[in-house]
Amino acid sequence: MQKTPKKDKEVIKVIIREYQKNTLPWYIGYSGGKDSSSMLKLVFNALKQVDSFHKPITVLYCDTGVENPIVTTYVYETFDKLKSECEELNIPLIFKIVKPKLEDRFFVKVIGRGYPTPTNIFRWCTDKLRINPVKQLIDKNEKAVILLGVRSSESEQRDRTISKHRTDNEYYLKQSGSSKNIIFSPIINHALEDVWLTLRYNELPKSIDFNQIRTIYQDAESECPVYRESKGSSCGNSRFGCWTCTVVRKDKSMGNMIENGYSELKELYAFRNWIAEFRDNTKYRCSYRRNGVKGLGPITLEGRKIILEKLLNTEQLSGLNLISKDEINRIYELWEVDKTNLNYQENALQHRV
Ligand code: SF4
Fold this sequence. Notes:
single chain; alpha/beta; 6-stranded mixed sheet; binds iron/sulfur cluster
């Protein structure tokens, strides 16, 4: 018989206490990664000990459309299994998947508008792809509690960010830029090994499987934030981030996954490495910025056409669905707009697509 670790028992008590405290709805930020999975396990076990449920608890996953396909498949399957398990055990968790609006999708921005793929300096993606879709849903409430699997021992950078947002209650953090919602982080005091113990020694829910997470998650990496402002550490080297991420020069985790047998990622990895170089090729950059000022501007129409061709080719080679019809149609519309934009006329005439 597996035994719930002592630290987890204490956290479960905290979760029950906080749940019963008021009627504010709860939203659980879930990425499929180790931290949010262990938090979800603890919330599930806390709810098992509660007699009456007086407020909704929603588990939220943001599918950016460019998630690592191995992880997305795992999360969708886990969601399905969790739904059945919750029904069986009368745990009233609601599961919701949100997506960025069409205009904000990764390829609409890069291929449609000519955004260079994200860098540490120009990291336009986190808000658009991850934070806004979650925020839009949560902000429909007057006030809500957001449960995040953040831990103070995760990294020095994360620790500094957490210190800035501390409240009187050690488990709560203020949300930057808004006083409306509050962040509740039940595993804030969990060290890395505690997280793995939580995953391993809490039998329920069975749908969150220690071995399965362990297999796709061999090293400890950071996760892209699901709710907080995007000032924290980069999520670019995480298995639980975008396969297109160019914030880091080298995506070690995808390379490792390929070595470990996920050969379907090969083509995606090659595309990512190619676009990271292509982004910096000034031959394919407009000489005016979007604000009309002379300087390194968006990727030219010719460059965008090359990227789309390469992406469609990657899609064919990998057999994976990498871009939707809606996104392609929107990209064509945006190209038409740029062809007639005076700021881009020089490029449009030179690089008509
Ligand atoms: S994983 Fe990379 S590309 Fe995706 S949102 Fe995070 S920083 Fe941006």
